[in-house]
């Protein structure tokens, strides 16, 4: 989804603000839950805003007021579906903020993900930010997606320069719009593979990268490497290079557990130890995306765990 013109960006911004003004709220669920709920007979088409912008159901124009409908047309987010309409974007709410992201199902190569992992990521990040006393002057969110990590930092540290990095231009457009909806003005979206396009050191690096093996290798889902951990390991390496003394990496990712061992942890810990970092490592959820265990790459995996790595370079570190 490429949205380049300022007019379309302005329409999306107004659409997001309009939804907030209508008291819109929606919590995005897993794809399996989404499919099951939408399959119910009563859910064949949308009857309200959450049906349109949350559940991605087809709708009749009369369901939406004229102002929102005009904005949807101007933002070019409408598809025709057997005489009805369907939005190509979803809207989810988190911590009082609204985030525009890709509609269900997220099949496109440039889909912008938002889901249960996002809620766990932001919740863990909030707790770690509250426990961190060092100032944050420069921060980066690697693989920002729809921008919840970067926007959460920008709101918590309004004096910081926050960089939202992603290789997906569609994600950067939505991050920019979502930041505008949140009233954030200290965030800079940047197209970048990891932090290659951003100079300097950082006080804080956060990431919620893809961590599965995706047969189609879609960027929002495919983690690469052994059992999906490739990108997460690369982020650890990048943080070791780019964090300033006292700087912290906050990484939410998934780890495929094999024979009761965690290969991602086994890869990350020697790197952090050699660099002199202090870190904590916790399983947030011991069993996510269980359906992936039916796929060939996970033939020997016991489970996939959602994990939280918080690693800090000492003040006197190199």
From TrEMBL:
Looking at the record's lineage, which domain of life comes first? Bacteria
One biological process term in Gene Ontology = methylation
Q: Which GO terms describe its molecular function?
A: methyltransferase activity
Q: Which residues form the Methyltransferase small domain?
A: 135-251
Q: Does the keyword Ribonucleoprotein apply?
A: no
Q: One Pfam family, please name it.
A: MTS
Keyword Thylakoid listed: no
Going by the UniProt record, its keywords in alphabetical order are: Methyltransferase, S-adenosyl-L-methionine, Transferase
Q: By its UniProt entry, which PANTHER family does this protein fall under?
A: HEMK METHYLTRANSFERASE, MTRF1L RELEASE FACTOR GLUTAMINE METHYLTRANSFERASE
The name this protein carries in UniProt is: Methyltransferase
């Amino acid at each position: 989804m490429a949205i380049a013109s300022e007019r379309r960006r302005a329409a999306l911004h107004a659409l997001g603000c309009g939804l907030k003004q209508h008291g819109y709220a929606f919590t995005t669920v897993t794809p399996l839950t989404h499919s099951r709920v939408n399959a119910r007979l009563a859910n064949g088409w949308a009857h309200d805003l959450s049906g349109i912008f949350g559940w991605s159901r087809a709708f009749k124009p009369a369901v939406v007021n004229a102002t929102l409908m005009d904005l949807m047309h101007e933002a070019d987010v409408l598809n025709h579906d057997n005489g009805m309409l369907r939005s190509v974007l979803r809207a989810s709410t988190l911590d009082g903020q609204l985030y525009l992201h890709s509609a269900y199902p997220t099949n496109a190569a440039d889909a912008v993900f938002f889901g249960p992992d996002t809620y766990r990521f932001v919740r863990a990040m909030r707790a770690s930010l509250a426990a961190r006393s060092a100032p944050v002057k420069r921060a980066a969110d690697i693989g920002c997606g729809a921008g919840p990590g970067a926007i959460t930092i920008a709101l918590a540290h309004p004096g910081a320069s926050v960089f939202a990095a992603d290789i997906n231009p569609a994600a950067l457009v939505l991050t920019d719009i979502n930041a505008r909806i949140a009233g954030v003005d200290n965030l800079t979206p940047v197209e970048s593979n990891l932090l290659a396009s951003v100079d300097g050191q950082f006080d804080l690096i956060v990431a919620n990268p893809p961590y599965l093996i995706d047969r189609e290798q879609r960027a929002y889902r495919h983690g690469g490497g052994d059992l999906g951990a490739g990108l997460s390991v690369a982020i650890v390496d990048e943080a070791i290079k780019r964090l300033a003394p006292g700087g912290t990496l906050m990484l939410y990712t998934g780890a495929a557990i094999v024979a009761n061992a965690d290969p991602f942890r086994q890869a990350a810990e020697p790197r952090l130890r050699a660099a002199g970092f202090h870190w904590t490592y916790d399983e947030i959820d011991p069993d996510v995306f269980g359906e992936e265990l039916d796929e060939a790459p996970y033939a020997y995996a016991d489970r996939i765990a959602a994990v939280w790595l918080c690693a800090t370079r000492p003040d006197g570190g190199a």
